[in-house]
Amino acid sequence: MTSFLKTSFLLAALTTSIASPLVASDWRTDIDMSRADLSEMKLVLINNDEQAGRMVYAWRKEGNTYVINDLTEMKPNIFETAVGVIDAKTFQPMSMDIAFAVGAAKMIIDLDWDGDHVTGTRTVSRPEQEDRVTNSDAKVTAPLRLSIFGLISTLPLEEGYEVSLPWYNVMGGVQEDIRLVTLGSELVETPAGTFDTFKVAIKGATPENIVYVTKSLPRKTVRIDVVGQPIKFLRTK
Questions:
Q1: 117-131 pLDDT, tens per residue?
Q2: Domain that holds residue 221
């Protein structure tokens, strides 16, 4: 179980001090969906300067909800798909499905929300072993960790901006507090082109990430770094 969590955390993701940070009091009031381009983005995964996988990530509006899709592959044998449904106004989760595999070993997560009450199952399967099923039954009031790469682009990013918010770490089954901190600006080269970006740190996560978001509107995520690992994702589309 622990090895599954460590590997998934690495995929999910997945400093310069600021003298007078512009700290937001409520992250929801800062969101403006028109700031963000949340259509499908494709990224190549680079590990130790070599191409080692890919990530595909997208939001789409369906009625009063957003559906968030994520696919991540990493050599030699890691594969993960995730689909989350969230309320379009509150960003409260409604359902979450994850299929994660390392070779023949698999984890399946199937969760559903009724208000802030989440129930469901987590099933771990390994060859020649009996499946291990854990039931989930908890109160969760935070947005999905899965949503963060979209939410960052909706915020009023500028030099010194930072905001704190909770998220629900589905793989760990815990609600955590994180902080988004704009570290500065950086010109980023990717297979999709060169972009003038804000450099935003996700602090308090395991692992932490640095996300590069275009300054021009609508904003796009063009690069994601895994802090402490020789791993980054670069936009190809």
A1: 999 999 999 999 999
A2: 2-14+18-235
